[in-house]
Amino acid sequence: MTLEILTPDKKVFEGDVTAVTVPGTLGSFQILKDHAPIISTLEDGPVIIKGSTGEEIFNIKGGVVEVLDNKIIVLAEAVVA
């Protein structure tokens, strides 16, 4: 699966991943390979990325996630340190 995390001013992350956990409006949920197509709003919180090199965490300030054909796009309002 490929993941892109974008903010209005830059691309924060792009790469292959094995699992992604996002802070959905109704609670966090995990996206795995062959996930059904989905578009969901996101709350402030951590995006947890699991890949072959380990785990990375980006804290976002709201946004939207789209999953289609093993491609995940997170459009975040901002990424905070």
Automatic annotation (TrEMBL):
Q: Where is the ATP synthase F1 complex delta/epsilon subunit N-terminal domain?
A: 1-78
Annotated membrane topology: Peripheral membrane protein
| Any GO molecular function | proton-transporting ATP synthase activity, rotational mechanism
Q: Where in the cell is it found?
A: Endomembrane system
One GO cellular component term of this record is:
proton-transporting ATP synthase complex
Write one Pfam family the protein is assigned to.
ATP-synt_DE_N
Which InterPro entries does UniProt cross-reference here?
ATP_synth_F1_dsu/esu, ATP_synth_F1_dsu/esu_N, ATPsynth_dsu/esu_N
Keywords, in A-Z order: ATP synthesis, CF(1), Ion transport, Membrane, Transport
Domain of life of the organism in this record? Answer: Bacteria
UniProt similarity note: Belongs to the ATPase epsilon chain family.
> Subunit structure, per the record?
F-type ATPases have 2 components, CF(1) - the catalytic core - and CF(0) - the membrane proton channel. CF(1) has five subunits: alpha(3), beta(3), gamma(1), delta(1), epsilon(1). CF(0) has three main subunits: a, b and c.
Which purpose does this protein serve, as stated in its record?
Produces ATP from ADP in the presence of a proton gradient across the membrane.
Q: Which PANTHER family match?
A: ATP SYNTHASE DELTA/EPSILON CHAIN, ATP SYNTHASE EPSILON CHAIN, CHLOROPLASTIC
| Official protein name in the record | ATP synthase F1 subunit epsilon
